[in-house]
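Supplementary Text 2. Reproducibility record for the structural model of the 484-residue chain.

All settings were left at their defaults, and a single model was retained for analysis rather than an ensemble. We include the record here because the model underlies the residue-level annotations in Supplementary Table 4.
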Amino acid sequence: MAETREAVAILDAGAQYGKLIDRRVRELNVCTELFPLDTPAEELAAGNFKAIIISGGPQNISQSSIDSNYRKIFELGVPVLGLCFGMQLANSVFGGTIVRGAEREDGQHDITVDTTSDLFNGLDELQPVLLTHGDSVDQLAPGFRITARHGSIISGIEDASRKIYAVQFHPEVNLTVNGAKMFQNFLFNIAKCSGSYTIDTREDKCIQEIKDVVGDKKVLVLVSGGVDSAVCAALLNKALGTEKVIALHINNGFMRKDESALVMTSLERLGLNIDMVDASEAFYNGRTHFKGSTELSKPLKEAYEPELKRNIIGDTFMQVANDAVNKLNLSPSEVYLGQGTLRPDLIESASKLASTQADAIKTHHNDTALVRKLRDEGRVVEPLKDYHKDEVRSLGRMLGLPDDLVDRQPFPGICACLVTHYLIHSSQALGLQFECCVHMRPSWVLGMKKLKIFWITSPRRTKTRFLRRPQAILTRHLVPFQET
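Retained model, structure tokens:
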């Protein structure tokens, strides 16, 4: 292999925790790249990675064909960390066996670790971890030794001579209390990473990428009011200048009170030319072709399925963008669409840009089928697609955005806000207090006939109630929308 670079390859076996693995490594200032599990070993070798991490996955090892490519990956000569399914794969590839247990192990459990292992260096022997598996290592592969146990069940193995380390639990989640320390041991003590992948070094690369993609064309960036699109607009402005960036703040009608004014003021202070479009009615009545249907869906105001609502919102943003291009007499072929798409957005939407193995958790409004079509046509620039939320907040501060914009949390939307208003008046018995203010048209609430709400009263108990005629309770607490 050629000289290695400061990056770790994560092989995605379909884990829904995939984005957490990615994030935990990046929190330690180490670059990561996601690949499908069946990526040829030759491709990984060409990438000159410092190490490889193999994620968990929903499949059973007996259902997976153990072909020669997997062994080649383990024998590339770089350290490998196998998690859950990754541990079972490592053991099977080298001649060990996997057995289906009589019962699953699910939840946080205390395991015993061998502190002489480099992976568990500096830790106590008893470690609380998250276990979620039905299959377990039975016969250990030649050359491996056991490094962790939960009772009689093997929870960790290694072959230090081959630089292969594997665990049956999830070090990427908070329920594995010292998971960060385990990643540190693997990345810095075993793989010898330096931790030089910082926000400072990445900003310059990001700006250069924007310039290379956009060239002499312009970018239309839609600013929704959240931190992601605001940071995206500020970054595009720094990279291209005000003459090439057309910024539109889209008031979708579901904003916090005075939120639009804050967004406009914050970006104008950076010298960005930004206009506001009131698209509240377009969103409220928005429709889409859902799941390949040739017929339009019901409007957003009548939709109740979360995935449908996300698709309507995403496609409506695209329609607003096209309308803006037409009104400005711009040629679509001469204008890129700028989006504040983040790395977790792509992972959760199962986008091919981030993961091809995991099932979609939810479709993000910036990764709908319509957005993917535009992306395939090369009409989208997404400078934050390699960033996690905490990294975007740090970048926003570096770009000069105010803390009250950078630190804001995602707004829950109309349904959650209505529930919050209801809970102000109906949940004193739970000892809860809420304060929320919604900026919307009163007619929107008056059209609601029934609202299903739920809240968690304990880790294992959820209460559900139907609120009939919600307008009777809620209209007193809404901030009136000023009709124009």
